[in-house]
Design a protein that fits this description.
383 residues; alpha/beta; Nucleotidyltransferase, domain 5; five-stranded mixed β-sheet; 14 helices; 11 strands; globular
Length: 383
């Protein structure tokens, strides 16, 4: 068994502590809804509409504040700001609201609705804020709740909520969370051991924006080799002009023992780099492991097909059926070039914390996408 696999398996006990709130969606939890303290969060994000069903726990008997019972997403691409994507988003909101209210019998007062910061930022950039207002008003009209509160989250509050929703309390003040999105990156940490003061970290680069910038300078040579060459140029420029400055400005290096990455690229890399930990929501990695993954991916993407990964699984380390399904999903969402772009950006950030005399522990969070909306529901349900 390779040394990196042994290392990860030895870290299983630590992971059970670290994952804390990171419980995967469980369909069989439906039978508990009738007696549980269950709430719903309905979020309009850049790519679609998400419904998260959340059970608030008894703090006297449980370590976590809440448990994620189920999360479902309908992709609608709202930030294209076209009539079809607007209508698709409105339809998705109504469908998922009905799922919460009718299928799971969650009272309207226990269903919380929010618009993500990414949607607001893009709408503001394109002078399309009216689309958000129209969406909110139409949704309230259709469900016949004129007084329903639909909160538009700003980027700092969303990053703070993500930290509260993803990182367990035991590691809250020692972890720097970095969410790599499609168009930008955001995150931060709590510098003063309280949840009121949050130090925001943000970059204008994300997986898709890096890929787009690379495509623009490729010229007529569309080969993978040229793509990786131009990708290096884009990422070197991002590192020199923004990443180093943003990390230094955050002051996170001396105050954070753990650096946790969330977002789609973290989910993707975690599933491909550590299939033997298929059931784990958080995967420990090193800078060298991610670099090796990126180099192999550039030369031979076939190594990360579902057939090849299942073939290479060590005996009795993971469910091959589930592993194949998860890897197929990754390759459906991310092609080789988007994986290289997202991983390259992650490596540039990781390098700032991989010092000669002090090295941080890196983690990839698989289901961080439900983090901020879960914390949003948890905080509002307590009011």
């Amino acid at each position: 068994m390779p040394g990196c696999i042994k290392k990860r398996i030895l870290l299983t006990t630590f992971l059970l502590i670290f994952t804390g709130l990171l419980l995967t969606a469980q369909n069989n939890a439906i039978q508990k809804y009738g007696k549980a303290n269950v709430f719903a969060g309905l979020e309009v994000g850049s790519k679609g509409v998400k419904l998260s069903l959340i059970e608030l726990l008894n703090k006297e008997t449980d370590d976590a504040d809440f448990k994620i019972l189920k999360d479902t997403t309908i992709n609608t691409d709202f930030i294209s700001f076209t009539q079809p994507t607007y209508q698709a988003t409105l339809n998705a909101m109504n469908i998922l609201y009905d799922v919460a209210a009718k299928q799971y019998d969650i009272p309207a007062v226990n269903i919380f609705t929010a618009i993500s910061s990414g949607v607001h930022i893009q709408a503001e950039k394109e002078e399309k804020l009216g689309w958000i207002d129209q969406l909110i008003n139409s949704f309230k009209y259709i469900i016949n709740e004129p007084d329903r509160k639909v909160t538009v989250i700003d980027i700092k509050e969303e990053a703070r909520l993500s930290h509260l929703g993803i990182i367990p309390e035991a590691r809250r003040y020692k972890t720097f969370l970095i969410d790599i999105g499609s168009g930008n990156t955001k995150g931060g940490y709590f510098p003063y051991s309280d949840t009121k003061t949050f130090k925001l970290f943000e970059l204008t680069w994300g997986t898709k924006s890096v890929a787009n910038a690379t495509e623009k300078i490729m010229g007529n040579d569309k080969t993978t080799e040229n793509y990786t060459n131009q990708l290096s140029r884009v990422l070197d420029g991002a590192e020199d002009k923004e990443i180093v400055y943003a990390v230094n400005l955050s002051g996170a290096f001396p105050k954070s023992d753990n650096i946790a990455f969330s977002g789609g690229i973290a989910w993707a890399v975690a599933n491909l780099i550590a299939p033997e930990l298929n059931e784990n929501s958080v995967i420990p990695v090193s800078y060298e492991e991610v670099m090796e993954f990126s180099e192999k991916l550039a030369k031979n993407p076939g190594l990360y097909s579902d057939q090849q990964i299942v073939k290479n699984l060590a005996p009795n380390t993971a469910d091959p059926v589930k592993t194949a399904k998860d890897v197929k999903q990754v390759n459906k969402v991310f092609d080789q070039r988007s994986l290289l772009s997202g991983t390259g950006l992650m490596l540039k950030i990781m390098r700032q914390f991989d010092g000669v005399f002090e090295r941080k522990q890196f983690f990839l969070v698989k289901n961080g996408s439900v983090g901020w909306i879960s914390a949003f529901v948890n905080l509002n349900a307590g009011k």
